[in-house]
Design brief:
This protein is mostly helical and 297 residues long. The protein has one domain: MetI-like (MetI-like fold, Orthogonal Bundle), CATH 1.10.3720. The chain is built from twelve helices and no strands. 38% of the residues are buried.
Length: 297
C-alpha cells in the first residue's frame, strides 16, 4: 500500500459539504437556486438566446400582442412595445442589467462591509465608534430616497447606479460581520493565535473571517434581491440605465400609458422582476436554514 497521504476534507470543508447537502434536500430552495442560475445564463448568453435585436424598432409591429392572441406572431412570442421592439429579447437583455447591478453592488458592498465590520468588531475603541456611528447615520435615511438623491446629483447611468447603491448597501454586511466578530474574537483559537504573536491582520483575515462567512453569504444573497428591486425602481423613475439599453424597470414604465390596451408591455418585465426576486428570497431562506446551526436539529 502506498505511503502517500490520502486527501481528506478539512473540518471546514466537511461542514460546508454537510450544509450544501441540507440545502439540496430543500427542494423549493434548490429549485429557486436553479431558477436564479437560469437568469444568470440568460444574462451571460443573451446575444445567443435572444430571438431578435432588442433595440430594433418596427413601427408596423407597434404594440403587437403576444403570439397566442389575435394579431400575434410567433416570431415575437411576448409581443412588441410601443416602438415595435421585441419584448422577449428586451427581457433577456434586461436580465444583464439586473444581474450585473445586483452582483456588482453586493460584491463591492460586502467586501467593504467585511473589512469595516472586522475592524470595528476586533479592534474596538475609536475605530468601532467611528464605523458604528457612520452606519447608524446611513441607516437613518430611507434607502430609496437616499439613492434617488444621489442619482439626482450624479446623473443617470449604469456606473452611477452601482455607486449610489454601494454607498449605503455596505452597512448591512458591516453590522453582521461586526456582531459575529464580537462573538468570535474571544474564542480559544483566536486567543491561541494572539498568544503566538499573530498580527491583527492575520487574526482578522485568517482566523476570524473564514469562520463567519456563512451568515455573510446568506445576508448577501438576501440583499441581492433588494438591490435588484432598487435598480428597477430607479430605472422606472428614469434615473437608471438610459434608453435604448433594455432595463426591466424602464420597460415597466414604458408600458404605463398602454396598460389597458397593451397589458403585455409592462406585465412581462414585471413578472421577470417578480420571479427573480422571489427565487433569490426563497434560495436565501434555504441557505439560512442550511448554514445556520440554530435551524438544525
Amino acid at each position: 500500500m502506498s505511503d502517500a497521504a490520502v486527501t481528506r476534507p478539512t473540518p471546514s470543508q466537511s461542514l460546508l459539504l454537510r450544509n450544501l447537502a441540507v440545502f439540496a434536500e430543500n427542494r423549493l430552495a434548490a429549485g429557486s437556486a436553479i431558477l436564479v442560475l437560469i437568469f444568470v445564463a440568460l444574462a451571460l448568453f443573451a446575444p445567443l438566446i435572444a430571438p431578435q435585436d432588442p433595440n430594433a424598432t418596427d413601427l408596423f409591429r407597434r404594440l403587437q400582442p403576444p403570439a397566442w392572441q389575435a394579431g400575434g406572431d410567433w416570431a415575437h412570442v411576448l409581443g412588441c412595445d410601443a416602438l415595435g421592439r421585441d419584448i422577449l429579447s428586451r427581457i433577456i437583455y434586461g436580465s444583464r442589467v439586473s444581474m450585473l447591478v445586483g452582483a456588482t453592488v453586493v460584491f463591492i458592498a460586502t467586501s467593504i462591509g467585511i473589512l469595516a465590520g472586522l475592524a470595528a468588531g476586533y479592534l474596538g475603541g475609536w475605530v468601532d465608534t467611528i464605523i458604528s456611528r457612520t452606519v447608524d447615520i446611513l441607516l437613518g435615511f430611507p434607502y430609496l430616497i437616499f439613492a434617488i438623491g444621489l442619482m439626482a446629483m450624479m446623473g443617470a447611468g449604469l456606473g452611477n447606479i452601482i455607486l449610489a447603491l454601494v454607498y449605503k448597501e455596505w452597512v448591512i454586511p458591516c453590522r453582521v460581520v461586526r456582531a459575529e466578530t464580537l462573538a468570535t474574537r474571544e474564542q480559544e483559537y483566536v486567543e491561541a493565535a494572539r498568544a503566538l504573536g499573530a498580527s491583527n491582520r492575520h487574526i482578522m483575515l485568517r482566523e476570524i473571517l473564514p469562520n463567519i462567512l456563512s451568515p455573510v453569504i446568506v445576508v448577501s444573497t438576501i440583499r441581492m434581491a433588494n438591490v435588484i428591486i432598487l435598480e428597477a425602481s430607479l430605472s422606472f423613475l428614469g434615473l437608471g440605465v438610459q434608453p435604448p439599453t433594455a432595463s426591466w424597470g424602464a420597460m415597466v414604465a414604458d408600458g404605463r400609458a398602454f396598460i389597458m390596451q397593451a397589458w403585455w408591455v409592462s406585465t412581462f418585465p414585471g413578472l421577470a422582476i417578480l420571479l427573480l426576486v422571489l427565487a433569490l428570497n426563497v434560495a436565501s431562506q434555504g441557505l439560512r436554514d442550511a448554514f445556520d446551526p440554530r435551524f438544525h436539529e
